[in-house]
Amino acid sequence: MKSYRRMKPEELAHFIQAQGVPEGVRQIMLEVLWDLKQYEEELHIQNEELRRAAVELEAMAERYSTLFRAAPVGLALLDPRGLVRRANAAMADLVGAQVQQIENNPVTIFLHRDSVEIFFAMLARAVRGESPRERLLLAANQHPVSASLGPVAADELILALVDQGPEEVAREDQRRALASFRTLIERTPLGLCITNPNGIFEYVNPAYCRLYGYTTDELVGRHFTVVVPEEHRAALSALHDRFIVGEAELRGEWEVVRKDGQRLHILADAARIQGEDGAPRKVTFVMDITERVNAERLRQDIEAIVRHDLRAPLSGIVGLTPLLLDSPHLDAEERQMVAAIHKAGRRMLRMLSESVSLVAMERGTYELKAQSVDLRAVLQEVVADLDDLRHRKRLQIEITWSQCFHEQCLVLGEEALLYSIFANLIRNAMEASPIGALVSVSSFCGPQVVITIHNQGTIPPEFLPRLFEKYATWGKQGGTGLGTYSARLMARTMGGDVLVESSAGEVRFSVILPAATEHHD
């Protein structure tokens, strides 16, 4: 008999009728049998789909296993404790072990001790669902590898190790160095900004923003003169443009303005770099020196007041002592003491005048009152005033004049400034000379007069370029570093200069001064 499973609906109805089933029951049987037939067909379809899925899953598993085994990257499946469940051949090659030696062992035994702590930090993050990436060192040869760790199942993680060859190591080191450098720039208290050839801010660090009271978004994209007082914007824009095309810009102090309108003083230095587009960029480093500038101004004001207040009593002393010297009631010792007071008073007045003049010279406001001055007389006065020092060190002072200076050596300048120049330089030569040595002064005549001071001694080569800097001093106890600085400043104010040479145990200072028109051979 043909199975009812293969019967069509009309055949099934005829079959049931032939069995003598009552009409009411027959209808119910037909409906139940039909539903069973439909359900059977659906089960058949589902079983077929499950079979196909199982085949595909098996194929995928085979492909995964093949890829896992053949991957050129070191792969290992780990449990949440870091125990290796499975490893591929590339992983074995990297760590220098057999696959069976890796599996069922902690992965940390194949890592250098310096990398174990880093790995456990990665493991903790991966268990939380993250996918960290770090640079690790292998235990076998301390070779660097790039390690990635991430979850693949509820209780399984996959570790990937990529060998970092020399080029990749160099790139990774560069990336780390750049990251460290950026962190340094972000955290430094020194303000830093980068501007493009048009003067537009491309980068500002947090310290720069704090200094000017702006946010990064308020500065980047704007012209740098937003922090420059309006009266200086044109000049500083021109300086920026010249710097971009190659002109040097010296370190300098500038007045700037904050967002709130407050004026500040900064010390700025700049460097030229090349951008990614090949165009130059200007990197500017700034430091707030407002407090220092204000303190310097206060100091200068106080010094000016002190100089002014000292002049009156000193002038009285210098003016009265000649009257005392004319008195017939003084004995020889008293007369000598009064003369010493008069000489000291004159010297202090000269020093006060000199300090006032130096300030004006530095500011560029000094008004030179040049006239013809006889250097022979100036040097005689200097040597006489240094006589005590000469006796203490038993020095010889020898002054030789060129034949054209047989009566006078006339230069164009101010007598007080000339005295100060030679008093500073000759005193320095005497103090630097050994006991009993010779300090010689020679001259050369021409359109310019050159007076050269020779003494025994040596100035270190590394200090020689800084000799004329303000406050620069070496080997002189209690030295202020102002002697040579002021001597050159005064000489240049009068149109001359001071030069120095040091070699073979000898120091030579040459003072160059313009000859007076009255001078004749």
Explain this structure.
It is a single chain. The longest helix is centred in the N-terminal third of the chain and has 48 residues, at 23-70. With 521 residues, the chain is an alpha+beta fold. It has five domains: 4-66; 71-170, PAS domain (Beta-Lactamase, 2-Layer Sandwich); 188-288, PAS domain (Beta-Lactamase); 293-363, Orthogonal Bundle (Helix Hairpins), CATH 1.10.287; 371-514, 2-Layer Sandwich (Heat Shock Protein 90), CATH 3.30.565. Helix 10 packs antiparallel against helix 11 and helix 12 (375-385) packs across helix 14 (415-432). The chain has 15 helices and 17 strands. The chain has a five-stranded antiparallel sheet.
Compact description:
This protein is an alpha+beta fold and 521 residues long. It is 47% helix and 21% strand. Helix 12 crosses helix 14.
Kindly report the spatial arrangement of strands forming the biggest sheet.
2-1-5-4-3
Residue runs with pLDDT of under 50 for 5 or more positions: none
CATH superfamily membership of the largest domain: Histidine kinase-like ATPase, C-terminal domain
CATH architecture of the largest domain: 2-Layer Sandwich
Enter the CATH topology name of the largest domain. Heat Shock Protein 90
Whole-number total of structural domains: 5
Shape: elongated
Overall SS class:
alpha+beta
The CATH class label of the largest domain is: Alpha Beta
Radius of gyration, in angstroms, nearest whole number: 47 Å
